[in-house]
Amino acid sequence: MTRLSAAVPAGGAALWPSYDPTAHGVGIVHLGLGNFARAHLLAYTDDALAQAGGDWRVTGVSLRGTAVAEALNPQDGRYTLVTRGAATQARVIGALAGVIAGPDTGAQALAAMTDPGCRIVSITVTEKGYGITSEGRLDRAHPAVAADLRQPAAPAGVIGLIVAALAQRRAAGTGPFTVLSCDNLSHNGQKLRGAVLDFAQATEDAALADWIGREATFPSTMVDRITPASTDTTAATARSLTGYDDLAAVETEPFTQWVVEDRFCAGRPAWERTGVLFVADVAPYEQMKLRMLNGAHSMLAYSGQLSGKTHVRDVMADPAHALLVRRHLAAAAATVTGLNIDLGAYAAALAERFANPAIAHATAQITMDGTQKLPQRITAAALEAIAAGRTPRPFLFALGAWIAYLTRRDSAGALIPVDDPKAALLGAALAKARTPADTLAAVAAVCPDILPPALAQGAVGTALADIVAMIQREGMATAILREGEFGR
Ligand code: CS2
Q1: Is the pTM above the cut of 0.70?
Q2: pLDDT tens for residues 29-79?
Q3: In whole angstroms, what is the distance from residue 484 CA to residue 488 CA?
Q4: Ligand 1, closest atom to CA 294?
Q5: How many CA atoms lie within 13 A of 171 on its CB side?
Q6: Measuring from atom 9 of ligand 1, which residue has the nearest CA?
Q7: Which strands make up the sheet holding 221-224, listed edge to edge?
Q8: Nearest-5° angle of CA 449, CA 452, CA 458?
Q9: What is the DSSP string of 230-294?
Q10: CA 113 to chain centre
Q11: If you measure from the C-alpha of residue 353 to the centroid of ligand 1, how many angstroms do you get, rounded to a whole number?
């Protein structure tokens, strides 16, 4: 077998880009080149290049190691995107020009971001990657932020890089770029703008912050495409469909959605021709997606992990468990306002996507970083349900599943570590908590943005503690059956 590269093979052209990628310059620097960006932003940009051209190829920056660059650079940035639905399909993406990674990443990323050709800096670094507090301010305790505040001229984190690049561009008269957050944070653009301005104010003269505030734009976006981690099967499928070995193949579902505020200070690809929905205010779309898709995902991931379900589709194949997913979707839908969308149909479509038998989306993958995800996915919806006089029960069940997951112990009685930036803090707080009430208080002390008093105390807190107790006493499988009795 030969390695996938820039050369279009005889007879394989249908899967290859219909344009000549090398004829297009780079216009976008993308920070955080994970599978999601390769299944989403790069696929849209590939379509836009094919349909409308322009110098909009993407240079990727890998902030977490060199593996992605080592796989992609020898392939000239090409990779196979496999979609799994009723049929399995593949295409080769040409929009990626190359990947920056390694010990010199910060300096090289800065060089790419200060190049006059760069007009958009897009980002997928997951919720924990930024260094933004839930209020949308700079989190000075975040490791990358703290390091970059000490050495602002040699940044390596997202916010430090953006501020340093904009400072250099201002000094050189190059003009600003658009900063495009594509992560599942509520008000992602607005919050990133707040944190960038805080950082600029802390490290440079106030005039830079003013200039950024005036000249650069930070559109908010809602992104959606279920993208599991790649496995050997991904590579094998890519090979069988293209005939090439691809060390960077990505698999995803057929569905894809991108809703974006159309505020680009230095131009953008013709994404409107590729199905991107441009709107004045993304907030209601974001609320719908974060609370319905991502909220239900988190609930089913924790309850799935505790009831032995490896994949999302396994949860959906269990009628009692799927009932709770649908209950969660309906409760979340009731909190969504300001959209002229049939939320019942949206919920039904989500349940179908979750059930996709061709997608092996690991529940373990979704359980990661719960402390970063649950405020916008669960807590915001729970508080609004209470304020509107509706029962928060479905949201309490989701929180109870998370808390029970955090308190799993091994046979020696030690807490099983979780994959979360607050794991150590939670572990220390939970080590001595034995009763469900103690447990709730311990979690609330570490994560007041997930368990504010309205959820941790009073009758609501008691109901939540009872859910945790039920799961711990009877096991998740039984708890799922019992929970189905509520809200029928
Ligand atoms: C998931 C998301 O891992 C998770 O937390 O909920 O990655 C989800 O698959 C995407 O947001 C779908 O667009």
Answers
A1: yes
A2: 999 999 999 999 999 999 999 999 999 999 999 998 999 999 999 999 999
A3: 7
A4: 6
A5: 9
A6: 226
A7: 221-224, 257-261, 277-279
A8: 165
A9: P-HHHHHHHHHHHSEE-TT-EEE-S--EEEEE---TT----GGGGTPEEES--HHHHHHIIIIII
A10: 22
A11: 12
